[in-house]
Amino acid sequence: MNISFNTTQPHAPCSVFYINALKRLNNITFYEQNFDKCDVALFMTYDHMLIKEIKESHPHLKIGIIDPRSSAVYESTKHCDFIIIDSIEMEDFWRMSKKPIFKYVEYPDIQYIQKTHEKKDKITIGYHGNQIHLECMAQNVTPALNELSKKYDLELLIMHNGPRPSGEEKWYPHGTEVKHVPWSMDHYIKYLADSDIGIAPNNLIHDTSAKNLIKTNKNFNYTSDDYSLRFKMPSNPGRFVVFGKLGIPVVSDFYPSAIQYLQNGAGFVAHSSAGWHHCLEELIISHQLRQEVGDNLQSLVRQQFDFDVQNKKLLSFLETLV
Question: What domains sit in the chain, N to C, each tagged with a CATH number?
């Protein structure tokens, strides 16, 4: 079975992650233009508009779309043979395609670190991701940090590709030292690996005013203590997997992927500021707990998300199609 990986945007972060993961396969080529030689062709979501023409000219080819991050890809799914997604959130959404789905979790290709957690006076809390999730954590994570900083010496390390924060942002905690690290592949090991605790705020701010509508309240029994969550369809385990590779325990927002995996001692999930306060404090006060949870998360990553493990499962899946 010969596999071809294709994209017009090889430097896009998601493309880079999948390229580094799939290049471990012996029977894969990249950017192969002669599809007559191929049995399977993989296309990144950025290139979905090419699939119809390629399928028509090469009907023997089994075509898969990787990481369809938008509903705009739907028309193209009619011309592919399968879809590769990275989370239960994406899986549920793309069941409407009626195509076989394979789950493959992508993330930055960094080394495993066997971290030894020690009792410390100053605790570093690490974040990597985009600025949107930083802004949204103003509602729950930041209030927790504001309270915790009254009792503990905390540092918040943030790594993203945006500008250095000014200190006026709503998410910016008071009483916690903030260290900004520009995003780069090298900085995962150089800086983020020094974190004692990782955080994965994920959920988005949204309008809950519908709870106050008399008609809606009567029909659907809304109350002030309901949970109302908003998260992106492409939400996935990737950000907490990175902390797992570094041996760092994680507290995450409530969202399906986090609740699915951060169980049984592999991590913590929280939604309210009180929940975040509790989970973070448990890890702040106990280096033994940080060690246990960090080790458990790394074990989970090795067993389920290691690229070699996922590649073996991917080949088995593809063999059922060709």
Answer: 3-106 (3.40.50), 122-303 (3.40.50.2000)
